[in-house]
Amino acid sequence: PLALATWEFSRGHRRQALALILEPSIPVVAWSVWVTLIVGGGFSPMSNLTWVGVGIATAASTWLHHPGIDQILSLGTLLVLAAALGSTFWKSGQWLRNQLWMWGGLALISSRAVWDLGNNSTRVLAPIWVFGFLAIESVLLSYSLQTHSRDQPPSTSRRNLPV
Hints:
Elements (H helix, E strand, L loop, with lengths): L1 H9 L3 H26 L14 H10 L5 H19 L6 H16 L2 H4 L2 H7 L1 H26 L12
Helix pairs in contact: 1-2, 1-5, 4-7, 4-8, 5-8
């Protein structure tokens, strides 16, 4: 919702942007209050967040000592994240760029609990895979079209032939 709100805000739709932020937040806040009242204190999703890069760095330090499928999944997510964020500097639409930077920001502040288990990073950051491959595909397609148009002589169709 934050990426969509940013998109709407950039288009000058302030009310829609505010609605995109507030409407999804109300049920989450209500649920969090209910869980805190029923279960008690101590419940906080903040343990999944940390300073920028700290979660990745602390998880990566254990990857070398305990290799396995979880580490491969986390490395795959990290590589897709890097390629996707890098691709936003070349060719991608504003909407896709907003999605990638919002999800990329979340990935960068995710804690070791997210990055240390590959299924966590893959599941929590699943939209990065989708938006990342869309962005990478857009860069590759743009590059392919530019290369193809330089290599080919101008096409002659029946409309361009002299009568």
